[in-house]
Protein: CHAT domain-containing protein
Organism: Confluentibacter flavum
Amino acid sequence: MGKSIIILIFFFSGISFSQNLEEAIYTAAETFISNKNDASLKLLNQQESSFKTHVKTKDEQLALVFLQCHKGYYLDEHSKLKEAISTYEDALKRFNSNELSKFSDFDIIESCLKPLGNLYTKTGDYTNAVSTINQYIFLAEKNKNTKHQISGAINLAKLYQTLNKHETVLKIVDDAFKFSNINSHQKALLQNIRTNSLAALNNYEAASLLNNTSTSLNFEKYKNNYLIELQKGNYPEALNAFNKAHEYLSEINLSVRDLAKFYVEKAQLYHLLKQPNDALKSLQQAIKILLPNFNGKGLPNKKDLYSENTFINIFDLHASIQTNPEKALESYDLSFYVSDLLQETWTSQETKIFNEASNRIRSEHCIDILFNIYKQTKKKSLLFEAFQYSENNKASVIKDMNLKKLRLQQFPNDSLLAKEFHLLKTQEYYTGLLIKEQLGANKASAVNHLSEKLSAISLQLKTLKIAISKKYPESNKAYTLESFQSKLAKDEAVLVAYFFGKNTLYQFVISEKDIDIESIRLTEEIKKKIISFIHLFDDSSIINNDIINYTNQAFTIFKLLNFNKLSTHKNVVIIPDGLLNFIPFEALLTSKTTTTSYSKMPFVVKSQNIIYNSSVTFYLTENQERKSKDLLGFFPVFENTNQKLTYSVNEAHAIEKEMPSNLFMNIKASKQNFIENAGNYSILHLSTHASSGDFVNPANISFYNDTLFLNELYSLDLKPDLVVLSACETGIGKLYKGEGAMSIARGFQYAGADNLLFSLWQINDLSTSQIIQSFYENYNKSESAFVANNNSKIAYLENEAISNEKKSPYYWSAFVYYGTLDKAKPNNMIFYIIFGTSILLIIVFLFFKFEQHVRNTRKISS
């Protein structure tokens, strides 16, 4: 250390007398380039820190960009991916903020953007990867640099191949082939990419034909043959092709990472061929390549691992080969550990959601292992461990946002936390604009501008995350079974949590005294039954046209989901998962029935109070409740259109009667008025149209003059106690494993809503109005959305003015309540009656005593 300081002092004293700063930076960079090792990197880091505090001119800034790009390249080569990303990001920020492209012809694409995009791909940060690659494709187009345009297309195609979007890959490749000056190397790369995607789409004939006529090296041709045979399921032929590729390994210069991946692929093939020992040997080779100091025995230590997703493939495969369950769990836990390391650099929720799928598969394997051990040992502690695996990746993005919100509530004056929260909302705002731009004219310049904005925000969030982590180190405050059961006892409730896996549907039932588990094999028949029941609510006529079919299916699903196990509990907290997110549990039947009268049917809602939550974390979290119950309502009504909501006006009058409220009607129910006012009220009520979205458009909700899209909703900062979405499909959207539906309801949750009442399908205007009116009547009395939701449904079923046809569960069970299990407040009138009666009895008693005392006094005196 002392020697380094002396060198630095000598170095900088030399700068001040003999060199200017620009020359010193280039000298430091070139010295490092000529002798790259950890010692010279350490010295370079010290020099860089000093340079950063002194650079001022554009020449000096450009010199520092040059230094950082070479440093990033070295870090990438030596598997220090997190540090490499940080270095490249700083170089790119420096280059853009100083507008160095106007000053120099420095190739920022080749030196920085390309390697940075590849690093994002390596670390699973797919949102930033797409954004970065698109940025340099745009820049290459602008500069008419077809070489970089083609290389951008190649990297983008590889990225989409990683995401299994093979149709998109083929389109990108076809467009790239249209360039006239494509060189032979680029042509070979594109042919390989096309061959792989054709094989993935089961177009084997076209894939083989292209591979045989391609200009690729022998290694690539045999590797492609391996992939084609693997996809076909011809594993022995795949192994022959793989071994042929291995013979030509020396003709291609693979990176450390790609070489490790090569051996992982070989291990996967051996595993499919049921050759576990050979598979394990290949995995040991892969680990040794990534960790040169690894001793080749067992599994590496956590402290030696870094953010490289190849480790995840290694440990997942290692776990699946194991016959010892404890060792398998140890391997999976290493995968989870590396996944957590990768997540430290992710800033967008899209990236987090996409990567949850692999964590979910791993969680299912862990639950399988623990369940099998439990069947042998009957240890209840194993069930709680399995339950925690099932909950780990449920609604993780919303949970993370909720934790940030709670931390900011705890430390409201912390500028770091406030800035982080603001940046997260700004990120969603620009993401919303980007989606709109892509849905519209899709001007390349506008898309590029927004991508640059998002990249800059991502960089700021990473910097903040480091500072916040140091200030508020995460303490592992994992809930215990005892604390969990204590809350259930207080709420007089039972919790049922589902895990909808690939092969098994697990049901966890936790009461104040016990924990239990059931496993349901997810056969095609079982899946069809669940899907069939959900589709009964596609249209109002389906149930009414065949009531007996409905009653049979509703009782079948009740039994299938083991809901009979909860019959002794009045309050039931449900954590649904997967397709179960779309099931109205209140509308299930507790017994078989032949009646066609809906009011006489044994619906679950008649015997139990149902509450939903996305994750057990939300059930356990104590949220700050506002004292006031002021309501903000939006009723566009849509007069003089074919979308007119006739009964929405009745709904508004009923709310006005029951609640202190500020209602925006017709033209005043604008998107702008909502954005400006929504953050100031305890209750938000929206009576309007909504859509779950489609493959192109995200979920959205309509105002009088405009539409609010899901990402725009994410960008808002709301703090309501309750949001009531009196609109169609507000709980439906594209379903992601673990995270749930990308719905308008989820958008409000992300924006800050603690409790929500929303719909699962398109609902009738009149029925909605009646349900909502009843809800607010009950809410005004009970001050509990949980109680009001259940009571309003029972009141609807018992209302003799409503016809049997309109009492179909289609009309009343669409609304589900996600939030707090808050019990009804004492009825003040009952309190006054009891209090008055008590006072009267006391007065009568005292009067009687007084009379008795007078009589006794008279007797004595006489």
